[in-house]
Specification:
The protein is an all-alpha fold. It is about 65% helix and about 0% strand. Helix 1 crosses helix 2 and helix 1 runs parallel beside helix 3. The radius of gyration is 16 Å and the shape is globular. The chain starts with 8 loop residues before the first helix and ends with a helix.
């Protein structure tokens, strides 16, 4: 029975949808900027990330340099390679960087994911009903936005916003919190 199945949040969210979201934002912002090669613009974003965390009195959360190769999967779609906790902590910078993108839906994705993380972190093992309902709403809205961006990118023949099976798992993880 399906009641025996548990979705692994680390792989589904941190190493799944969050890594896709971060890399999509990095690639889109780097493509919007002018001057130099794309790889150099990605490296510049990495330097900005270090400054961002230094200004907050925190260590850079991503181990190693941010490179174009680190932002792409073998299929060519954006996917950030990194450790789960690092990618999770990176979302604040990703939201900061997403303000350079004119499409507000990208910022919405970042805000939903940060709200998801904050809600989970603020609740005990057994979440209250309001938080469970909000998690379900976040999952629904995040997945709808992501799939819309994916469909539009597909129509433009751009390798962005790849809908992975982990997006589907995230939808179920959020939905199942309601009960």
């Amino acid at each position: 029975s399906l009641t025996m199945i548990m979705i692994d949040p680390l792989h589904t969210i941190d190493l799944g949808i969050a890594s896709h979201l971060a890399a999509n934002v990095f690639i889109i912002v780097a493509k919007q900027r002018v001057g130099g090669k794309l790889a150099n613009r990605i490296s510049q974003i990495g330097a900005e990330m270090q400054t961002f965390y230094q200004n907050r009195g925190e260590q850079n959360v991503l181990q190693g340099d941010l490179t174009l190769e680190r932002c792409r999967s073998k299929s060519g779609f954006p996917k950030l390679k990194g450790k789960g906790a690092s990618i999770r902590k990176l979302m604040v910078f990703v939201l900061h960087l997403a303000h350079e993108i004119t499409d507000r839906r990208v910022r919405g994705l970042c805000q939903f994911l940060i709200e998801f993380y904050d809600t989970i972190a603020s609740q005990p093992l057994h979440m209250d009903a309001t938080s469970r309902t909000r998690i379900a709403e976040i999952g629904f809205m995040f997945c709808n936005l992501y799939v819309t961006l994916s469909s539009e990118a597909y129509g433009r023949k751009e390798k962005l916003w790849k809908p992975s099976p982990k997006l589907h798992l995230f939808a179920h993880l959020c939905e199942w919190t309601v009960g």
